[in-house]
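I am writing to request your help with a piece of structural work I have in hand. Thank you for your consideration; the sequence and its tokens are set out here:
=====
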Amino acid sequence: MIHTDMLEVVQINPKIILIIQILIGLIIIIAPIIITGSMYDVTKSMGDLLVAEFVIRTLSLVTGLLVISNSLKGYSK
């Protein structure tokens, strides 16, 4: 049985939430570099693999920027 007097709502500073969300966005952006261990390199891949790598890196960039954009939008409210 849970006592309601033991439950508390913790308020987190909006600046800390903003910093955490920006860090998450940056991690999403650099995730392909972390996973592959290298920057985008045309000489190491070819054909369909080159296209797939380019698409994934572009999608991670866009997704990371969207996360950062939404965090800034939420912070400005």
Notes: Residues 8 and 19 are 24 Å apart (CA to CA). The two ends are 38 Å apart (CA to CA).
